[in-house]
């Protein structure tokens, strides 16, 4: 198991995104530890390449019993910055890291208060240009 990313949320939850091999193939799992010591684990995605034209895929889990909600993003390799806009108007600039097992992917994680919603996700390349999913640009759902 390899650590892809780790951090601490604004509310003090410590989290670690791990890359691992499972019977379902390579994937990632998120471990969250609350300030009170409670641990939560979850398999959040596979490390299979994104479909052509896709910039990102996300896994969103709503928090329970005062726990934070989590957003794990699988990103195309050319993504260098991710900005998430929440329903209270806050803007979160996320860390982005390479997948140690698949160089064609990058990952990003956000833990945020359960009572908020993700309103928009912006992704940028190394030159600062916005990247868009081909499916979204064509109006597909």
Q: Can you put this structure into words, describing what you see?
A:
The chain has 141 residues and is mostly beta strands. It has one domain (2-137). Helices cover 3% and strands 54% of the residues. The protein contains one helix and twelve strands. It has one helix at residues 134-137; strands at residues 2-8, 14-22, 25-33, 39-46, 56-61, 69-76, 81-86, 91-94, 97-98, 105-112, 118-124, 130-131. The strands form three sheets. The protein has a four-stranded antiparallel β-sheet, with no helix packed on it. Strands 5-6-10-9 form a four-stranded antiparallel β-sheet, with no helix packed on it. Strands 8-7-11-12 form a four-stranded antiparallel β-sheet, with no helix packed on it. The longest helix has 4 residues, at 134-137. The radius of gyration is 15 Å and the shape is globular. The relative contact order is 0.21.
Write the layout of secondary structure elements.
Elements: E1 2-8, E2 14-22, E3 25-33, E4 39-46, E5 56-61, E6 69-76, E7 81-86, E8 91-94, E9 97-98, E10 105-112, E11 118-124, E12 130-131, H1 134-137
Antiparallel strand pairs: 1-2, 2-3, 3-4, 5-6, 6-10, 7-8, 7-11, 9-10, 11-12
Low-confidence stretches: 136-141
What integer is the average pLDDT? 86
In percent terms, what proportion of residues is strand?
A: over 45%
Which series of helices and strands comes N to C?
EEEEEEEEEEEEH
Which secondary-structure class do the elements indicate? mainly beta
